[in-house]
């Protein structure tokens, strides 16, 4: 089978490695890819949201399956255009991708399907939003209704913060059209985890769970990022609990989407809070997480490609998907200055040295090759060092040994990835 993978991050490098192991794979193209994916297939210079160019390429190259990485091509209608062209695409239509693109759409689905989530209200008028938060008090969460590149959510600890967020979004146009309307919701308390499943419209097949580390600073401080590291599985969220969470938060959504005539096919990513009342949905994304995918995919023991084909054919109930019963830890290295303007230009060495360590893999994101073949950092998140091992503590040690083997003076990373999960596991063992 000839496959076109869309994206250029660490998530796509991990997908390329995973697909590359499939005996069913005849050729792999990556649009636009990165220097890491170039070693696994052919990089093609097409932007992820240039849907006409992606489909034209897929037709010309007789692609049998399109695998979208990020949400942008899906929101732009890649799956719809593939359907018209008769090409299988392992992602949702633009209508179904509204689960990620519109907060209020998701909330409406949750209400209709009885999915536990924070109580919410939507506002188009700033005065009404102000009156609402004054009535409710803090902590409270203010969300731009549209896609705002991860900057659209303010978890306000005080009323003043909540009111400033409303003004920034609704009065000062700080997020453009995405902030013209806002969703205001109750603040959930607990541990936040990411749950993943393949969906073929009717069936949800559990992939697994991971815990992201979103803040730039150690101890979960400082501004939000795309994600600075992940552990899988989260120590206190075993597969039985993950299945329960799918029953509560994902399967009712699939039924509701079928009822609306817009069945969901693709990877569902449920961001959820493990509260004292059980799991509650924070949000859906319609794709793999980054860096969660880099932590999950190295544990996969079965062939990914037939599962993606089954997803497109509506045959997921027959698919075979198994993961090693081990832990993985992914540590992201970013350019100094990230999530602001990152340093670029410094050369990276030592990836091979890191990958000689047992269980260690390095995935590339914003890297570029210089004319002499050297590798350079070229953006925010640059590398992910992932290690798998029988338990979390060993995986963490191996991941940080991998980081130490890399020589990149411009790189920054968190030293506490997995520490919280480890403390939880220790507490659980002590009978806490
Ligand atoms: P979202 O873009 O909806 O994922 O929100 C970004 C982050 O804000 C989430 O990953 C959570 O950490 C936090 N968040 C969102 N909604 C809530 C909520 N209702 N209660 C507590 N934290 C939230
Ligand atoms: N790591 C969170 C995301 O991919 O959105």
Using brief descriptors, characterize the structure shown:
single chain, 432 residues, alpha+beta, Rossmann fold, Dna Ligase, domain 1, D-amino Acid Aminotransferase, Chain A, domain 1, 9-stranded antiparallel beta sheet, 5-stranded parallel beta sheet, 23 strands, 33% helix, binds adenosine monophosphate, binds glycine
What does this structure look like?
With 432 residues, this protein is an alpha+beta fold. It has 4 domains: 10-93, Rossmann fold; 119-186, Dna Ligase, domain 1 (2-Layer Sandwich), CATH 3.30.1490.20; 191-318, D-amino Acid Aminotransferase, Chain A, domain 1; 327-431, Phosphoribosylglycinamide synthetase, C-terminal domain (Glycinamide Ribonucleotide Synthetase, Chain A, domain 4), CATH 3.90.600.10. It has helices at 10-20, 35-38, 51-60, 72-75, 78-85, 98-101, 103-113, 126-136, 159-171, 239-249, 251-259, 292-296, 304-313, 351-355, 392-405, 419-429, and strands spanning 2-7, 27-32, 42-43, 65-68, 88-89, 120-123, 140-144, 153-156, 182-186, 191-200, 204-212, 215-217, 221-224, 229-232, 265-275, 278-285, 327-335, 347-348, 360-364, 367-369, 375-377, 381-389, 411-412. Strands 10, 11, 14, 15, 16, 17, 19, 22 and 23 form a 9-stranded antiparallel sheet that branches. A hairpin with a 5-residue loop joins β20 (367-369) and β21 (375-377). α3 (51-60) runs parallel beside α5 (78-85). The chain starts with a strand and ends with a helix. The mean pLDDT is 95. The protein binds adenosine monophosphate and glycine (GLY). Residues 118, 141, 153, 155, 185, 187-188, 192, 271, 282-283 line the site of adenosine monophosphate (AMP).
């Amino acid at each position: 089978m000839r496959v076109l993978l869309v994206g250029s991050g660490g998530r796509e490098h991990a997908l390329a490695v995973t697909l590359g192991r499939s005996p069913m794979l005849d050729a792999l193209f990556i649009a636009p890819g990165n220097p890491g994916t170039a070693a696994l297939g052919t990089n093609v210079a097409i932007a992820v949201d240039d849907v006409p160019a992606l489909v034209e390429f897929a037709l010309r190259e007789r692609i049998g399956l399109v695998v979208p990485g990020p949400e942008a091509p899906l929101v732009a209608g890649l799956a719809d255009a593939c359907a018209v062209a008769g090409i299988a695409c392992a992602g949702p239509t633009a209508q179904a991708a509204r689960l990620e693109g519109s907060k209020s759409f998701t909330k409406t689905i949750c209400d209709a399907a009885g999915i536990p989530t924070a109580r919410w209200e939507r506002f188009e008028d700033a005065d009404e939003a102000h009156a609402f938060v004054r009535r409710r008090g803090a902590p409270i969460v203010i969300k731009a209704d549209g896609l705002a590149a991860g900057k659209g959510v303010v978890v306000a600890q005080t009323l003043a913060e909540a009111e400033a967020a409303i003004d920034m979004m609704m009065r000062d146009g700080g997020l453009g059209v995405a902030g013209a309307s806002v969703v205001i919701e109750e603040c959930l308390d607990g541990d936040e985890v990411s749950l993943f499943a393949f969906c073929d419209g009717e069936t949800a097949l559990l992939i697994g769970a991971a815990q992201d580390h979103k803040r730039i600073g150690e101890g979960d401080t400082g501004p939000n990022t795309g994600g600075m590291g992940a552990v899988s599985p989260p120590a206190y969220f075993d597969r039985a609990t993950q299945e329960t969470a799918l029953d509560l938060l994902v399967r009712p959504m699939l039924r509701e989407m079928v009822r609306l005539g817009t069945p969901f096919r693709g990877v569902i990513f449920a961001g959820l809070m493990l509260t004292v009342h059980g799991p509650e949905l924070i949000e859906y994304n319609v794709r793999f997480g980054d860096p969660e995918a880099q932590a999950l995919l190295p544990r996969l023991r079965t062939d990914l490609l037939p599962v993606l084909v089954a997803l497109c054919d509506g045959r997921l109930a027959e698919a075979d998907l198994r993961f090693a019963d081990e832990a993985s830890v992914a540590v992201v290295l970013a350019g100094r200055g990230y999530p602001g303007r990152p340093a670029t230009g410094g050369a990276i060495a030592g990836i091979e040295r890191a990958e000689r360590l047992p269980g260690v893999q390095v995935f590339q994101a914003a890297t570029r090759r210089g004319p002499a073949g050297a590798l350079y950092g070229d953006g925010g998140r640059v590398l992910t060092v992932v290690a798998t091992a029988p338990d979390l503590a060993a995986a963490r040690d191996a991941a940080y040994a991998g980081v130490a083997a890399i020589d990149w003076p411009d790189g920054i990373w968190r030293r506490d990835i997995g520490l919280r999960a480890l403390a939880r596991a220790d507490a659980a063992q002590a009978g806490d």
